[in-house]
Structures are given as C-alpha cells and as structure tokens.
Specification:
The structure is a single chain. The protein has strands at about 10, 15, 25, 30, 35, 40-45, 50-55, 70-75, 80-90, 100-105, 125-135, 135-140, 145-150, 160, 165, 175. By secondary structure, it is mostly beta strands. It has two domains: about 10-55, RNA polymerase II/Efflux pump adaptor protein, barrel-sandwich hybrid domain (OB fold (Dihydrolipoamide Acetyltransferase, E2P)), CATH 2.40.50.100; about 70-175, Nucleic acid-binding proteins (OB fold (Dihydrolipoamide Acetyltransferase, E2P)), CATH 2.40.50. It is elongated and about 75 Å long. The protein binds zinc ion.
Length: about 190
C-alpha cells in the first residue's frame, strides 16, 4: 500500500488506503479495493488495533466578506491606521478566530478626526465591519460600530460613555473615542 497520510483531510467517499493492513474504524467504510471515509474529517491511523478512523472536522474557518461584523482588540496604532486583532466573527460565535484587520483613519468615523488616537487606544475592544477581505480592511463609521469597551489608562477600570467621550468613573479622566452606540451593552 501507499504511504500513510496521518492527519490528511478527507471528504465523504475519499479513498484512504488499501485493506490489507487496516480495518475500517469510525466514520469509514470498506468498498472495492480499500477503506473510504464517510465524512469530512481527519485521518487517524491506529497501529495497535490496525484500524483507521476519521475524526470529524467541523471547524471550517469563518467566512470573511464585505459586510461581515467582527469583534477584536486594538493592538497597534500607526499614524494613519489601527491594527485590530480579530477574535470573534458574527455568525461564527462558537469559533476560535485569530486574524488581523486594519482600520484606516478615514474609516473611523463620518466626521473629521484630527488623529488616530482620537478614535482608538491600544487595548480597546472594537466592533467593526469588513470593507474588503484580502487583506482584511475594516470600518467603524456606522453608529453602532467602534469602541464597545475601553479601560482607563490610569486606573485600568472600564470607562463610561459620556456622549462622544469616555469618562473614567474614578479619576474622571475624559478621552475622545469613536464610541459605538452599543458601548458596554454586550450586543454583538
Ligand atoms: Zn481613571
């Protein structure tokens, strides 16, 4: 038989190997000339039991396209754009996501903004909409987009929304932000 391909991703009906050495285990079946997969999954060889299993693989990567809503943390601020570490994608809330996107200064808000730091700060949690996906570019122009959680740079506690500003309930530090209308509402 051919070489074993441990970890190979297979589709239903895919040939896995000939039957001389192995028996069909979970999510596989025997057919003419060999063992086939009955599901979308990953091939596992059990050498002790001479058995082949296919482990179900349900975690397809989330589809990111224009209009997709994402949640993430501001990880880098440059003069003309912010980098967002995306960790949630709307519609795929059960998935672990690890992606990056950028928000250009012109995509922060509708009105003029004098600097990127008037929109965001590193550590802010933002809700944003995908503009294009290769690479991922985001916008927070919509009223419900922007910062949904931020912490006081001095006290480290969550800030409160005061109009278009955020205010620390403890030290009364006031900072401008592109605040989402859903700030700290838990809506995603
Ligand atoms: Zn404070």
């Amino acid at each position: 038989m051919g070489e074993k391909e441990e970890g190979k991703i297979v589709l239903p009906g895919d040939f896995i190997c000939a039957t001389e050495e192995y028996v069909a285990g979970e999510h596989t079946y025997k057919d003419a000339g060999g063992i086939y997969s009955s599901i979308f999954g990953m091939v596992k060889f059990d050498d002790k039991a001479h058995k082949i299993d296919v482990e179900p693989k349900v975690e397809a990567p989330p589809e990111i396209k224009p209009g997709t809503i994402v949640l993430g943390e501001i990880i880098v601020l440059k003069s003309s754009f912010a980098v967002v570490g995306i960790d949630r994608v709307k519609g795929y809330e059960d998935r672990q996501v690890k992606m990056e996107g950028t928000i250009h200064i012109s995509n922060i808000q509708d009105a003029y903004i004098s600097g990127i730091d008037k929109g965001f700060s590193v550590g802010d949690i933002v809700k944003a909409k995908v503009v294009s996906n290769d690479p991922i570019r985001l916008t927070t122009v919509d009223e419900n987009m922007g910062v949904i959680k931020a912490f006081c740079p001095v006290c480290g506690i969550p800030m409160e929304k005061k109009g278009k500003m955020l205010e620390c309930p403890k030290c009364k530090n006031k900072i401008p932000r592109k605040v989402s209308s859903e700030y700290r509402t838990g809506v995603f």
